[in-house]
Each structure stands twice: as C-alpha cells, then as structure tokens.
Amino acid sequence: MQSFLVRPGAKSGTKIIIDDQKQLHHIRDVLRLKAGEEAVIFDGEGREYLCVIESVDDKAVFNIRNETRLLNANVNLTVACAIPKKAKFDDIVDKLTQLGAERIIPLKTKRVIVKLDKAKEKARMARWKKIALSAVEQSHRASLPVIDGLTGIKELIASSGEFDLKLIPALIGDGRPLAAILEENKPRKILVLIGPEGDFTPEELKLALDAGFYPVTLGKQVLRVDTAAVAAASFIKLFYEDR
Fold it and tell me: Three-state SS for 208?
C-alpha cells in the first residue's frame, strides 16, 4: 500500500486533498493510482489516515476511512553530526530519518573539512529536507524530523541544557559502553554528538565533558562518520523500543 506525507491543511472534513503538482504527478503519472485504491497518509504531526482514493485528475482526493493518533516515541533522539566529505551527509539524513531521529543537526567542528557558504548551505538544506521527506514516506514514519542549520560545536554545547542525556562517542578519552550508560539512565531527550574524520579535538572533548556529556564507545572498530551516526541511532532506538 502506498503512503504519502501531506502538507498542513490538506485535510478538509473527511477528505484529504493533494494538489501539489510534484506529488500529484507522482501519484497520477508514476504510480498510476486509481479511484478505489487504498493509501496511507501521514500529516507530519503524528496522525495516520487510512484512505480510499475518490478521484485523481487535477488533484487527488482521498476519503478518510480511519484516523489513528500515533503514540510518541519512548525516547526523543537528536543526532548532531559533523559534515563528512563528499555527499555522505545525504545518506546520514536518509538513514537517521528512517531510524526515527526527531532532530538532525549538521555540525561544524574544528576538523570538519567541508566548508559551506550561505548559498551552499541553503542548497544543501533544501536537498536534505527533500531526502527526509522521501525517507518518511518510504519508512511509513508519521512525522518529519527537524533539520537544523549548520551549527558550531561550541554553540550547540552551550545550548544543550534541554537534554536529559548527552553522549559523545570519541576516540580519545575513556569511553564507556553505550549500553551501560543507557541502562543507568531513564532519559526522554537524548543528544548524541558525532565527530568528523580525525575525531574531536581535545579542547572540544573537554568542553563537552565539562557540560555534562558522557564519553561512550561504539565498539572496538574505528567507524566512519556516517557509520557512527547510524550505529548510535540504531542502538538507542532499539534499546528503547519496548521500554
């Protein structure tokens, strides 16, 4: 069954109307959906609708059969990840969205090689949001993650007081197993910092530790940036899946 994420205001009474031309083209000309077929629609705010297509022409009209308010996740996860070389952050956004991260922060640290001016950052942000939208529809997730603008590590650490648990996997320092830290805490909001190629600098690590971050290890292997982000998010989400 096909699923779609719709913009706010698409619901009107017992119907959902899609008139965005790109999405309409996908429904009508690519998927070739017809009246009478079923689809699942998410509103991006935690509601899921089981629908039957009424018509598809200059707009797609869906009749709502059932509405479900999806439960909030057991844990709210934010991953702040240093931007790696090439286009790997595209994959990071895709995978973290599928895994259920609620917030993704492109992170600038001293050893980040990729430099983005305002124009490049704006273009990247537009692409990342498009990737997240596609991942939401593919994974049948009910809401879009928040994707922040490029954020400096000092700025992020200074504003990290809202989180119940703050984690920093790092190659330097005495990191404890991630599972052990999670067993000892019952957080609702978790922040994970993922460093760049070459890891965090000693100064950045000290700044994080002084702000209450726990140093953790993701295993004996040295992981690439994209692998570390996905590994941390996967473990945390699965750990709290049934808790």
Answer: helix
- Going by C-alpha positions, the residue among 221, 208, 206, 194 that lies closest to residue 77 is 194
Q: Which of 15-19, 149-153, 185-189, 210-214 has the lowest mean pLDDT?
A: 185-189
| Tokens linked to 14 | 């017992």
> Would the pLDDT of 126 be above 80?
yes
Residue 150 structure tokens: 């490029």
Does 3.40.50.720 match the CATH number of domain 76-239? Answer: no
- Cα separation of 206 and 198, whole Å? 16
Provide the residue ranges of all domains of the chain, joining segments of one domain with +.
2-69, 76-239
The CATH code of domain 2-69 reads 2.40.240.20
Q: Do residues 95 and 229 touch, judged by C-beta distance below 8 A?
A: yes
- The answer for residues whose C-beta is within 8 angstroms of residue 67's C-beta and 6 or more apart is 47, 48, 49, 50
**pTM > 0.90: yes or no:** no
Beta bridge partners of 41: 4, 49
